[in-house]
């Protein structure tokens, strides 16, 4: 497993039930992986601010095919690996 930071791996940012179900490739480019690494490092700071509680990633990188399949905006930052939807279950979900 490729680690992007201490607590976050690449698979957490790229896993997609939609991609799996529809057979859509959701593999990021090297540039996107660099940006996901920056996002993972920022999430480490968020995790610290939340009292070092675990963060669950709901959506990270989306390939164009995945983004279209989920109805994402054509200019979504998820396409670039610069957006992440997450929760911190032990802190709260909203």
UniProtKB/TrEMBL annotation:
Residue stretches making up the Peptidase M15A C-terminal domain: 7-89
SUPFAM superfamilies (UniProt xref): Hedgehog/DD-peptidase
Signal peptide range: none
Protein name: Peptidase M15A C-terminal domain-containing protein
Species of provenance: Pararobbsia alpina
């Amino acid at each position: 497993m490729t680690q992007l930071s201490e607590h976050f791996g690449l698979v957490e940012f790229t896993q997609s039930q939609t991609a799996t179900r529809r057979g859509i490739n959701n593999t990021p480019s090297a540039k996107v992986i660099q940006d996901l690494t920056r996002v993972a490092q920022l999430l480490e700071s968020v995790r610290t601010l939340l009292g070092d509680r675990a963060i669950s990633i709901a959506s990270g990188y989306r390939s164009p095919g995945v983004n279209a399949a989920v109805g994402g905006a054509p200019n979504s930052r998820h396409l670039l690996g610069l957006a992440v939807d997450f929760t911190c279950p032990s802190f709260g979900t909203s």
